[in-house]
Amino acid sequence: MALAERKEQDGMEFRFSDRDFQYLRQLVSRETGIVITDAKRQMVYSRLTRRLRTLGLSDFRDYCRLLEEDAEGELNAFINAITTNLTSFFREPHHFTYLQNVVVPELLKKNAASRRIRIWSAGCSTGEEPYSIAMAMSEALPDDSWDCRILATDIDTDVLAKAERGIYRMERVASIPQSRLQQWFSRGSGANQGLARVAPELREMITFRQLNLMEEWPVRGPIDVLFCRNVVIYFDKETQRHIFDKFAERMAADACIFIGHSESLFKITDRFDLIGQTIYRKRR
After folding, report:
1. How far is residue 191's CA from residue 51's CA, in Å, rounded to a whole number?
2. Buried b vs exposed e over 105-120: b needs ≥16 C-beta within 10 Å?
3. Of 134, 101, 132, which Cα lies nearest the Cα of 117?
4. 157 and 30 in one domain?
5. Contacts with 233 (C-beta within 8 Å, 6 or more apart), sequence order
6. Chosen domain end from 60, 82, 104
7. Same domain assignment for residues 115 and 50
8. Catalytic-role residue among 20, 154, 156, 224
C-alpha cells in the first residue's frame, strides 16, 4: 500500500481504497443517476460501515465483490444506505398554499366532469410530503365526491416502509399547527406514548410504491400535480433533462410541477413555464 493511502486508512475501521470508492460511486451513478463527487468520499464511507458490520466483512474490497454478485440482494440495501432522505411536514409551505389557493380551484373547473385528481410525489422519503399533500387536498376540496389519489414513490424501500406505517414521533409533527394536528393525527398512549399516527382517511388517499427514476416507470397519466423536490439535484444535467421530459409526457395539459428550493429548470428543459417560486406549469 502506498504511503499516502496508508495515512488515509489510519484511524478507519475498514480499509477503503481509491479503487473501492471509484467502483461504489460508478455503481451509484449507474443504478440511481446520483453523481457522487470526491468531496463525498467520507459520506460514502460513513453510510456503508454499518452494512459491513452487519455482513461481518473486514474491508470494502469484499463489500464491492458482494455488490458485484448482488449476493443476498445487497444492491437494494446499498441503495437504501447511500441515498439522502431529508424531509418534513409542509416543507416549503408556499408550495402548499399555492396548491390550495390556486391549483385546486383550477382543477375543480378543469376536471369538473370526471371529478378526478391525480397527484405524484416523486421522492417521497418517509412520507411527510405526500401526507402534507393529502392534508392540503382534503382541506381544499369542497366535498368527498372528488376522487383524489396520490402516488408516492421512492427508490429507498426502508423509508417507504416507514411512510406506509404513517407513525411519527411527536417532535416530527411539532411544527404542524395544533388545529391540523388534532384533525389529522391521533396521539399514542401507553406503549405508544410520544407517537402520532396519520388519520386513516389520509392513508387511504396514498399509494406507496418503490420506483427508481432511472428505470422504467409503470406510471399512468395524466398526472394533474407533480412534486419532485430536492431529488434531481443529485443528478447530472443530461439525466435531469431526461427525467423532466418523461415527467412532461405523463402530465396533463397545464399541470403543475413543484421542485426544490435550490433547483431550477432553466437550461434543463423547455417543457415547462415558471409561474411561481420553484413552481412550473407544463407548456402547451
Report:
1. 30
2. eebeeebeeeeebbbb
3. 134
4. no
5. 260, 262, 263
6. 82
7. no
8. 154
Does 154 qualify as catalytic in the annotation? Answer: yes
Following DSSP, what letter does each residue of 51-87 receive, concatenated?
Answer: HHHHHT-SBHHHHHHHHHHTGGGHHHHHHHHHS----
The pTM (predicted TM-score) of the whole model is: 0.84
Separation between Cα atoms, residue 37 and residue 25, nearest integer Å: 8
Do residues 225 and 108 share a domain?
Answer: yes
106-165 pLDDT tens trace: 999 999 999 999 999 999 999 999 999 999 999 999 999 999 999 999 999 999 999 999
How many structural domains comprise the chain?
2
Residue range of the domain that includes 17:
3-82
**Dihedrals phi, psi of 152, to nearest 5 degrees:** -120, 120
Catalytic choice (47, 149, 172, 250): 47
Q: What is the pLDDT of residues 210-262, one digit of tens each?
A: 999 999 998 888 999 999 999 998 899 999 999 999 999 999 999 999 999 88
Whether 187 is a known active-site residue: answer no
Whether residue 195 is found in the same domain as residue 218? yes
Distance CA 282, CA 270 (A): 9
Q: Where are the beta strands (DSSP E) in the chain?
A: 116-122, 147-154, 167-169, 185-187, 195-198, 206-210, 223-228, 251-259, 272-276, 279-282
Residues 112 and 139 in one domain: yes
